């Protein structure tokens, strides 16, 4: 069988609430590639919110759908900026989807970022795995090293504005293309 070449997408990974969607949109303004979001695509396929998919169909089905979506991206998507749900990094073909950028911060930084945002309540309510902050912290600690391992680039986003983060990513990508 023909093996597929790595796609020319930018894949943003990292924990819930780190700002992957925000950075994807900021990158669109900066470099013009359209932003796609794995959760949005899954919500659109099910015509249902992530919270409802978890409640009605269970996390296992959601994870299977993430894998299906990753296969779809590998086959069909190129030249896009893809922000991903916090657990998407586990799809087996992740490295084939594009350049993987891990947006990194410590747990407290992430929670403060959410709590200080204008729609904090909504941001917490829509994420089933953030319901219990103790459990969420455990999940973060389990994933921290794994995010780093799969990343092509790690960008520390602590105390930086979306503009600063976007500039940093743009520079990394320019170097990577040389
Ligand atoms: C998840 C993160 C969420 C969403 C789902 C599961 C996770 O996306 O995919 O609730 O396992 O970390 P965000 O990272 O956009 O919150």
Give a structural overview:
By secondary structure, this protein is of the alpha/beta class. It has helices at 20-31, 38-46, 50-57, 59-76, 107-115, 120-125, 133-150, 162-177; strands at residues 9-13, 34-37, 80-83, 98-104, 153-156. It has a five-stranded parallel beta sheet with strand order 2-3-1-4-5, sandwiched between helices. Helix 2 crosses helix 4. The longest helix has 18 residues, at 59-76. The model has no long low-confidence stretch (mean pLDDT 95). The structure holds shikimate-3-phosphate. Shikimate-3-phosphate binds next to loops. Shikimate-3-phosphate (S3P) binds next to loops.
Topology:
Blueprint: E1 9-13, H1 20-31, E2 34-37, H2 38-46, H3 50-57, H4 59-76, E3 80-83, E4 98-104, H5 107-115, H6 120-125, H7 133-150, E5 153-156, H8 162-177
Parallel strand pairs: 1-3, 1-4, 2-3, 4-5
Helix pairs in contact: 1-8, 2-4, 3-4
In short:
The chain has 178 residues and is α/β, with parallel strands linked by helices. Helix content is 54%, strand content 13%.
Supply database-style keywords.
178 residues, alpha/beta, 5-stranded parallel beta sheet, binds shikimate-3-phosphate, single chain, 13% strand, globular
Major sheet details: 5 strands, parallel
Number of beta-strand segments: 5
Instruction: Decide which structural class fits the backbone.
Output: alpha/beta
Mean pLDDT over all positions: 95
The strand line-up of the biggest sheet is 2-3-1-4-5
